[in-house]
Amino acid sequence: MLFLISSLISTVGLLVKPPAEVLQLGDFDDNGRLSIDASTSRRLAARGMDLVPVDALRPLAEQGPFHLLIHKLYGDDWRAQLEAFAARHPAMPVVDPPHAIDRLHNRISMLHVVSDLDRAADKDRTFGIPSQIVVYDAAALADSSLLAALRFPLITQTLIADGTAKSHKMSLVYHREGLGKLRPPLVLQEFVNHGGVIFKVYVGGGHVTCVKRRSLPDVSPEDDASAEGSVSFSQVK
């Protein structure tokens, strides 16, 4: 998670649950609560900001007040609490408001924005989405006609991206035999060699930051022939 916080904001409420991309801010206790480390607190204090962990075990209405609330928690109960809290404090920005990220919780709908782009304007630059399908049950994994449109190896991910450890788990499937270990619902997507590097783009208002991250190494035909059916891993580093 990337923080782009105005110096006009003095009290920032923060709620994340492990695993999260904010571990550099502190550490999680046995109950999954984030404890802000001293160096982070000092840096924020120098900018006139106080980063306050929000306790997920207590009602949100009993906490605060905050000038800004940053969260990475999901679920119907939390959403109801967050929307009620935001209604009582309309001047407090919420990052991110649930309605604004609904599309990102589903790995199919999150890619529709790319599919729907008009790419005819610039013929010199190309981009796109690898071929993919959604599998809702184990029977579909045995359907050869359903998989005919895909080429191995495949990347598999859970259909729902909700920030939990399960949603960060992925598998690289080399052969059809490796599909037997999978538990739908899943998204199956053709793996595209990309030099072992990905770029994550973070947008906050008018601020855009691009971060280079390590990724899976390229796969050669020799790897395909000698590999086991599938390899599981987590995309959280």
TrEMBL record:
GO terms for molecular function: ATP binding; inositol-1,3,4-trisphosphate 5-kinase activity; inositol-1,3,4-trisphosphate 6-kinase activity; inositol-3,4,5,6-tetrakisphosphate 1-kinase activity; magnesium ion binding. It catalyses: 1D-myo-inositol 1,3,4-trisphosphate + ATP = 1D-myo-inositol 1,3,4,5-tetrakisphosphate + ADP + H(+); 1D-myo-inositol 1,3,4-trisphosphate + ATP = 1D-myo-inositol 1,3,4,6-tetrakisphosphate + ADP + H(+). Gene3D superfamilies: 3.30.1490.220, 3.40.50.11370. Residues 217-237 are annotated as: Disordered. Its cofactor is Mg(2+). Residues 1-15 form the signal peptide. Residues 122-236 form the Inositol 1,3,4-trisphosphate 5/6-kinase ATP-grasp domain. Keywords: ATP-binding, Kinase, Magnesium, Metal-binding, Nucleotide-binding, Signal, Transferase. GO terms for biological process: inositol trisphosphate metabolic process. InterPro entries: Inositol_tetrakis-P_1-kinase (IPR008656), InsP(3)kin_ATP-grasp (IPR040464), ITPK1_N (IPR041429). Pfam families: Ins134_P3_kin, Ins134_P3_kin_N. Residues 43-101 form the Inositol-tetrakisphosphate 1-kinase N-terminal domain. It comes from the Eukaryota. Monomer. Belongs to the ITPK1 family. This is Inositol-1,3,4-trisphosphate 5/6-kinase.
